[in-house]
Amino acid sequence: KIDTNGIESDMIGSQQVTSAKLNFEPTRETLSTNGSLTAFTLSNSVPDGFDDVLVFRNGLLIERVASNPSGEDEYTSVLSSNSCTITFGSAPASSDKVIVAYFNIK
What we know:
The chain is mainly β.
């Protein structure tokens, strides 16, 4: 861990940080909605601090709220032991296409 303001003049060399060296990668997951479920646990492990997932319902980005989501166009995301759960205010319809974009642990 590097302290705040710990490096002031050095830089990482070009092409030195590659996706193969990182412990996480971008992922896209489609949720199986059925009109009654409001909570969905992502199938991949999520790194600590990476619970700021993006959720799209029928192609539109919906709003993440801190608590008490209202309706199917708001959600919360909670990270616990590398497991992330998305909870909607009301269940998305079975005909809705819900896609979650997030970083998962390799």
